[in-house]
Amino acid sequence: MSDVEITTYPGLDPRVSIVRLGETVDAVFVRTARFNVLVDTLDTPDACRQALALLEGPVRDRPLVVVNSHMDWDHFWGNVAVGDRAVIIAHETALQRYRAPSVREVLREKAAEEERYRSVELLAPSVTFSGSMCLDGGDLTLELLHTPGHTPDHVAVWIPELKTCLAVDAVEDPIPEVWSDDPKHLRALLASLSMIQGLGAEHVVLAHGQTSSPAIVAKNLAYFSELMRRAKAVDWGAHASDDLPLPAGLGLFDVTAEPPGFPPEMRAFYDAFHRTNLRAVVRTLREGGAARG
Ligand SMILES: [Zn+2]
Hints:
Blueprint lengths: L3 E4 L8 E6 L3 E7 L4 E4 L5 H10 L1 H5 L3 E4 L5 H4 L9 E6 L1 H7 L1 H13 L13 E3 L2 E5 L4 E6 L8 E5 L4 E5 L14 H16 L4 E4 L8 H18 L19 H4 L11 H20 L7
Parallel strand pairs: 4-5, 5-6, 6-7, 11-12
Antiparallel strand pairs: 1-2, 2-3, 3-4, 8-9, 9-10, 10-11
């Protein structure tokens, strides 16, 4: 059984609720005058049903619209729980990702490891858009912004009336992970971070790391420029990009600050993100480009 709770952050508008699945992932529930919006469906239909039960009163009294931020397992595997009562909106590139064999491979792997994933049935988004999309809730507007880089299909949500950005995985503490070492994905991630930075948000709600501090956006941008600066000073020789050494001064927490209370068991996870980012930076340097957004 998973542990879902409804929580919030200091100063966050009461119409926005954080739907927290332990340390795994946060989804977000937004109540507008005309409809409710659930941004992401957690990692299983069971977890999503638990969330809906906790939101029971508010969720029933007006239509429900669901947004999938991107097709990573921890954000959309709960779709079946809402498929009979809500449209599920995602960026058009989400469908390509949904159809990729890797989605089923990840499900097979996770189901082999953990009982709770054995009952997961996948469900694709039902409405897609390109560019951006606007949900007019009457009192609140939800602007769905294509923010690729972490994944090609990533969408963040901007609520201008509340100066609140649901950045999901485009921003992460300590660091977000780029999709691949292809320089175009690094450029996309930096452009997405800059776009989010430019919103002037007072709350930047992340899906991992349990923070809504807008300072994390600047911290992520500073991490990439410092990584680029330090990587430039290294002679990478003929190392293949999947086998780069990590010279002194290029460790994860040499390049960015360790978050307060950072759990040691998460270190290997974010070290892997850091290695992916470094490979993208080195390939960008080799191809003679600046990784500017
Ligand atoms: Zn995620």
